[in-house]
Amino acid sequence: MNAIEIKNLTKIYVKKRLIRSKKFLAVDNLNLEIVQGEVFGILGPNGSGKTTTIKLLLGLLFPTRGDCFVFGEKVPSLLAASKIGYLPEIPYLYKYLTAREILHLYGSVSHINDQILEKRIEEVLELVKLRAEKDTRLGEFSKGMLQRVGVAQALLHKPKLLILDEPFSGLDPIGLKDMREIILQLNAEGDTIFFSSHIISDAEKICDRVAIIYKGRLLRIINVKEIEHGKLEDIFISEINKADAGK
Ligand code: ADP
Ligand code: MG
Q1: Does the CB atom of residue 50 touch ligand 1 within 6 A?
Q2: 15 CB under 6 A from ligand 1?
Q3: N or C, which end of the chain is more exposed by having fewer CB within 10 Å?
Q4: pTM here?
Q5: What number does the ligand 1 atom closest to the CA of 198 have?
Q6: Cβ proximity of 9 and 75 under 8 Å
Q7: Which fold, 1-83+159-169+194-247?
Q8: Which residue from 190, 91, 83, 203 is spatially nearest to 149, judged by alpha carbons?
Q9: Which is it for strands 209-214 and 39-43: parallel, antiparallel or unpaired?
Q10: Model confidence over 5-33: pLDDT tens digits?
């Protein structure tokens, strides 16, 4: 069974105007299959439909056409949702709380039993290398640390599939390396990772496969092991140029 199946997925946003409503095709007949145990990246310039695709996968948006399946369950499904950990593009974290307090808050909202939760919070803080800073207020955290709190939050209920929306965005080189290591470690422990990025070099370092998407369309799927190391960015740019030239 695949971790994710996306079939003929299409999303048209309708912006209501006074006289006529305006339609925008954000995801255009997308088909993708993500195998269990993979690290898979969807890469595309801003506005390509990555976040929309992720929200459709999570059941946060309804598709105009097509379907998504998570571990064989058709989205929206509570069972599917319970197997997914999600890092939003802009995680909302209260800056006056400490890392431990915010994880407690998220855990309580997901109805995790208190004793289990305490132990799990320690485990996820260890996983994202924030144990030493667990009692520091988030207002004092760097962007990279906040991003790791976001990942810790996504891991609380032990999901089998992690969906990360732009996990590398805005990180410095140390933050990027930490994030890559965390993703690879979670993958080594058996999780499937699906993430979006417009930062190609970091995706190349950790992905088994990537999909290049542009203007809502799948341009190409690449098995990263089959290309020369460091070439993904060139391939990415050439695919986008070809699409723009209408080839
Ligand atoms: P990405 O994550 O690849 O940057 P998005 O999925 O956020 O792309 O957006 C794809 C396109 O859909 C963009 O052009 C964006 O402006 C448009 N879009 C996103 N959300 C909405 C919305 N709620 N209403 C109308 N258009 C939207
Ligand atoms: Mg986005």
Answers
A1: yes
A2: yes
A3: C
A4: 0.96
A5: 3
A6: no
A7: Rossmann fold (3.40.50)
A8: 91
A9: parallel
A10: 999 999 999 988 888 889 999 999 999 99
